[in-house]
Amino acid sequence: MKDTEFAYASARIRADENSLLGFAFLTQLAEAQDFDSAAEMLVRGGYPSIKTAESLDGTLEICERELWKETEAAVGGKAELDFLIMKNDFHNLKVSVKSIAADVDPKGLFLHPCIFDPSEVYDTVKSRQFDLLAPMLSKAASDGYRLITETMDGQLFDIYIDGCYITELLKKCEAYRFAYEYFSKYAALYDIKTALRLAETGKKSETVLDAVVDNPLLDAQTLRLSASKSVGDVLSFIEGTEFSALSDAYKNSYAAFERACAEMLAAELESARYVSFGTEPIIAYYIAKKNEINTVRMILNCKAAKIPSLKIRERMCDVYV
Question: How far is CA 10 from CA 60, 274, 285, 311, in A?
Fold first, then answer.
């Protein structure tokens, strides 16, 4: 496949980049007087009207569906970019398994867009026919179901499924160099966050430590060993890697640490600016717009909860525009 096949799509995406809100706009959004004022600002920024906090998630899900539709149209079947939405499939798997284990209705908890129909995933998990699920979900479903029913530890289950997602993500995007490099960094940051969380909670079982998954940028085995010891050991490990700045950020505050992680990923998107015809601008735009939608969700939820603007801005990071 030649990169020039995406010349028109890349040019169109470059135009769409002009509609991204940008850090300055999002900062103003965070400083809006209240939820209603922020929602009005968003309309001026090109978003649909959000009347109430209760309608926020539904409205933003529509935005995400439209974004995915636009991305699929841009590649016109010439590229398989569904790794961009597969996180929702693993979320939906979590919802299915947890709701079955707890005997509750999962209605309203599934996320879209996704690769597989979440209702079908739910029905298949409920019937325990795990082998009928798509290969990327079947083992995660069977092992995850056994894990949560034996331990009733929701956090352990979440960590396990997240690790399965990261492993499958790296496999799925391997054919796209830019995406693989971006998500390799994403995976490394996931491992660092997971290792710190495990060290904080003192969970040291082999199953838990295996949640630190193999990735091209870190020695996962050494990181697992550090996580089995202490937070200090994890931070010492981080200081010897290209992610050393995260150690000081973590010591400052968890908000600073999260912001530093997000800014590292935002910086990774910048390399897409230098590619004229490939899938890189399309992938970068999707990620940037999805991050923007997530930031909008965070800001408006905080506004609804009457969290001070300063606290909201602490959770924000630079964005790709």
Answer: 25, 12, 10, 37
Sign of the C-alpha dihedral, residues 224, 229, 234, 240? negative
> Does 113 have pLDDT greater than 80?
yes
* Those residues with Cβ within 8 angstroms of residue 284's Cβ, 6 or more apart along the chain or in another chain: 178, 182, 269, 272, 273, 320
pTM strictly above 0.85: yes
CA distance linking residue 321 with residue 315, whole number of Å: 18
How confident is residue 269, by pLDDT bands cut at 50, 70 and 90? confident
Position 1 scores a pLDDT of 43
- Indicate the domain borders of the chain: 1-80+293-321, 82-175, 182-278
Q: Tell me: the pLDDT tens digits for 132-182?
A: 999 999 999 999 999 999 888 888 899 889 999 999 999 999 999 999 999
Are the CB atoms for 156 and 208 separated by under 8 Å?
yes
Residue 7, C-beta contacts closer than 8 angstroms, at least 6 positions apart: 276, 277
The reported pLDDT for the residue numbered 35 is 95
Cα–Cα dist 12/280, whole Å: 13
3-class DSSP state for residue 122?
Answer: helix
Residues 92 and 100 sit within 8 Å (Cβ to Cβ): no
What is the rounded CA–CA span in Å between residue 162 and residue 178? 22
Report the C-alpha gap between 256 and 296 in whole angstroms: 19
Check whether domain 82-175 has CATH 1.20.950, yes or no: no
Q: Evaluate whether 184 touches 166 at the Cβ level (below 8 Å).
A: no
